[in-house]
Amino acid sequence: MAPTVTDVPDRGRFEIDVDGAVLGFAQYRRRPGVIAFTHTEIDPAHGGEGLGSMLVTAALDTARAEGLAVLPFCPFVRDFIGAHHEYLDLVPVERRAAFGLDAG
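^ that's the sequence the OP posted. Answer follows.
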């Protein structure tokens, strides 16, 4: 079965689920107009399967759809954005240097 990513606001995180089992999550804090990603974790038994990238892609796509600015405090999310500049615009210009993200 294909992985499914779901926003679980009660837990403050996006979860990635495969066959009914939560295999990872991207923790966040929200305030009006902003989502701050603080921690991402994938079950070590499923490392290297691309689940982290699927999870972060879905989370960032949701942030874009909701018009949220992204603050990537989580190193995984920060590195993902650094490698996928199509998401750089989600990080406010004035905050990019603090996260080590260039102009793309």
